[in-house]
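S.,

As promised, the FE2/S2 (inorganic) cluster run. Input:
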Amino acid sequence: MKFKESLFSRRQFLNGLLGGWLGAFLASILYPVLRAIFPPEKEPDQVILVSSDYAGIPANTVKMFAWGSKPGLLKKTEKDELVAFVGVCTHLDCNVIYLPDQKKFFCACHDGWYDENGTNISGPPPRPLRRLSVTVEGDNIIIKKEGAT
Amino acid sequence: MKPIGSLKRIMAGLAAWMEERLGIEAARDFLRHKTVPQNRHTIWSYTGSLLLLFFSIQVVTGIILAFYYRPTLEEANKSIARIMTEVPLGWVIRSVHFWSATFMIAIVFVHLLSIWIIKSYRKPRELTWMSGVFLLVFTLAFGFTGYLLPWDDLSLAATKVGTDIPRSIPVVGAWMTKFLRGGEDVSGDTLTRFFSFHVSILPLLVLALIAFHVYLIQKLGMSLPVGADEKEEAKRAIPFWPNFVFREMIVWLILFGVLVTIAVFWPPSLGKSADLMAPAPEGIKPEWYFLFLFQTLKIFPAKILFISGDTVAVSLILLGGILFFFLPLLDNRPAGRKGKVITWIAFAFILYAVAMSVWSLLG
Ligand code: FES
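Predicted complex:
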């Protein structure tokens, strides 16, 4: 098929070609720079704890472990089960504390409260505390992201 | 109302608003009329703009490296290992930083030597030359301080030797060594000090000097070859924008391509973390740009009459540096005169530096 008139002039075509090439070139320079600005994700895939250090804690108490650079909270429930949370408030990232006598997690930053299952009950927190999955294998307690196997 | 038309009107309004306050038009008008001479020496004027390119690359990659680098004894080496292995494309950034530094130093030498040989330093460009010599010294200082930062065996040994050399300068030497090291010995304080030199003191100094240097070049214009006819030259000159800038861009693109290619295929290595107590590794050599000085120091005997050989060698090197700095005052003939002796000295120096470097590499 042949057009009677061209859709764009030769100058437009060349400008587009050159400009497009220049854009692609700049993008290829920018790409590694932007990639390198952010460090790789620090969240661990799993954390392995030694049972003897952690399993013996009394019911209704919490013991801390390091979940990457955040505090992980390992909790023994009243039914003697082990559950784990990321101990970081879902409001604005403050670290929370467990208060055994009130059976609640408390965030001091803006007076946020979670019940013993980590569900947000009062104050600004919008979501429950993040849960981690806990499995006991031999002498180890293995903590993983929820849903990961 | 067509949307494109109104967008254009808004942009025009915005441009006018800006113009009223910034007065860019004067600068643009100036650029439109600026010309660059075209002659057999023009090729050397590309080296200057290339230095700006490589300096900018150093700034960008250096900032990113500084995001991750930690200047402490325990972590310096580890943090670079992390850049090389964990940070996304971190190894490319470090490799480009390393190679761009190498290119930059090489081009600084070419830049100065070419100006020496074509004698562009003559009146009224003496200060341009002198600020250029300072820029050379600072560029070498960048290389020297940057070399320590990975904190591996080689860089520690090189820094020990390098910071010990000023000690043989009479009177102020011992103090200078202490200042460079942050104490009597190379230690963790040397590392933080070099980091501070490398990322804050030197960049500030160099930026200020570049501004001064470029201002002078702009104010005085490009020099013409010895014995050139001014009218003829003016006729042949080409506009700075866009003719000259586009030509420059071609050179930039080519060298940038070469740089990135080399950087991707030959990333710099990283030795294991340096141990202050360990014996020095064998066969240590400085980076290539210090080889000729290194070899010069080596060939001097331990004692000359009653003075130490090092003191004589270092004093001679310093004297050479001072003469080099004052070159425009020593050769203060008018720009139109030839200067065979000066040219020969330049070539003799190149020959000497190359020969010494090769000797050092072989020996
Ligand atoms: S951060 Fe926890 S309540 Fe605001």
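Residues 8-39 of chain A form one domain. Chain A has two helices and ten strands.

- D.
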